[in-house]
Design a protein that fits this description.
It is elongated, with a radius of gyration of 15 Å. The protein has 3 helices and 7 strands. The protein has a single domain, classed as CBS-domain (Roll), CATH 3.10.580.10. The longest helix has 11 residues. The relative contact order is 0.24. By secondary structure, the chain is of the alpha/beta class. It has a 4-stranded mixed β-sheet.
Length: 134
Amino acid sequence: MNTSITKPNPAEDANLDARPVKDIIEPAKTVLGEVSVQTALDEMQARGIDSALVTNQRGELLGTVSSNEMNRKVGGLGHDPKTEPVEAQVETNIDYCFEDQTVAEAEQIMCDGALVRSPWNRADYNWFPSPTRR
């Protein structure tokens, strides 16, 4: 499943703040909530990422996971990452924006939530500018 990483280039468009979010993103990957923590960690390591959006089989956004949190909460507490489902580790309290919102609106959502990155909401989920709080 694809999500997005931003690639704004202010030199290309002086009116970037007025552009819709969908104009400045590119696909990235998600993790299925039904897989094991170990499978998710392996997938994330192979992609070189430390956090990911999590979706269900229908492609609906469940939330986010981070490799550090999964390692700490699963392995650190003695649970087996090969049998523990990712879905049990999902952070559901996330901020996001919609594809038709302007870059300025998305930036305000990020500032209000003290975010470094935020997913935007569409049938295929996308990252806008890690749901990592500052």
